Amino acid sequence: MSGAARLALAAAVVVALSGCAAPSWVPLVGKSKRPEAPPPAPPPPPALEVRAPILSRPSVPGDADAIVDRVICVVNSDAVTLFELEEAEAYAIYESKQPPPAGAERVALRDKVLASIVERRLQLQQAEREKIVVDDAEMQEQLDEIQKRLGAKSEVQFEEMVKTQGLTLEGIRKRLREQLLVERIKRRKVSLRISVTEEDIDQYLNANREKLETGLSFEARHILFLPVAGAGEDGWQAARRRAEDVYARVTGGEDFGELAREFSEDTATAKNGGRLGVLKRGELAPDIEKAILRLSPGEHSPPFRSEVGYHLFEVESKETLAGEQLVQARNQIRDILYKQKYDVRLNEWLVEIRSKAIIEMRL
């Protein structure tokens, strides 16, 4: 069937199902009529409406069959036509929710769409060789779900909604069947050939623990010793000596909070025993936070120099990856590692089947 006839028949079926009058651009099929003056050109679609390029033409040229069905690429003796490219391009534009691009951007989009068609065709051919099938009942279940998500009350309304975007229900069925076939061949050739072990998760967890613990809370106190103003390095050394003296008293068993009230030069926290409150990881300066988090609850740090002065730290409590949080973290890691391995295996498989294919571009 020619491209023009196929479009006319598809449009006629849509009209029959919807009960609406045929639009002026639909050619009449199977009827003989006296020549009449051509009808006026239909008004252009609204600016935000995206229509398939082949349906957007106000008239069909005499050599429409050659244009619509011209072979633009051959993949292992399997032809890809200009009609298929334009239909896939229309889907891509519709799914992007953006106005159709023009100029170089349109050319780049077309190249990208054609590359995806070739890749998809290779996978469909592999699915055919593996004798993978999709039954009609599963297809209908998927279509019913799409119809439900779109809010269509009937198949007729669903078909009308599809038609307003310059697409066809048959085109959607074909696209959905191909999608299911591709998913199944990917599962067989990619998904079922990769695994994530507990050892993989342990290695990732150990290498990225700090990053994974971001957002966990901790409570700490500090005692601050400021350098003597205007004394240069001597002022810093004086602050260090004061910190060492108090640290000796802390390790001797004296109460950290009481020493903070007496010696800390951080006026905002000294009266509260040096308490910094409940903090989330990532809230403090990295060097200070690292010095605190290397401690266990109840431990104290030796004098630590920051940009402000010398500190003594005490950790009161600290959340760690344990219990349910650890379970969630390991599940997230499993997903991350699975995706990484999946992407690598998928790329290897695509390179493999492409290297064995004969692809001839004619566009």
How would you explain this protein's 3D organization?
The chain has 363 residues and is an alpha+beta fold. Helix content is 53%, strand content 10%. The strands form 2 sheets. The chain has a 4-stranded antiparallel beta sheet, sandwiched between helices. Strands 2-1-7 form a 3-stranded antiparallel beta sheet. A hairpin with a 4-residue loop joins strand 5 (304-305) and strand 6. Helix 3 (82-96) crosses helix 4 (104-129) and helix 4 packs across helix 7 (169-189).
Head-to-tail CA distance between termini: 22 Å
Within the largest sheet, what's the order of strands? Answer: 4-3-6-5
In the predicted model, the low-confidence regions spanning at least 5 consecutive residues are 1-67
Helix and strand sequence? HHEEHHHHHHHEHHHEHEEHE
Query: How many helix segments?
Result: 14
What structural class results from the helix and strand content?
Answer: alpha+beta
* CATH architect. name of the largest domain: Orthogonal Bundle
The CATH homologous superfamily of the largest domain is termed Porin chaperone SurA, peptide-binding domain
Q: Could you name the CATH class of the largest domain? A: Mainly Alpha
Structure, briefly:
It is built from 14 helices and seven strands.
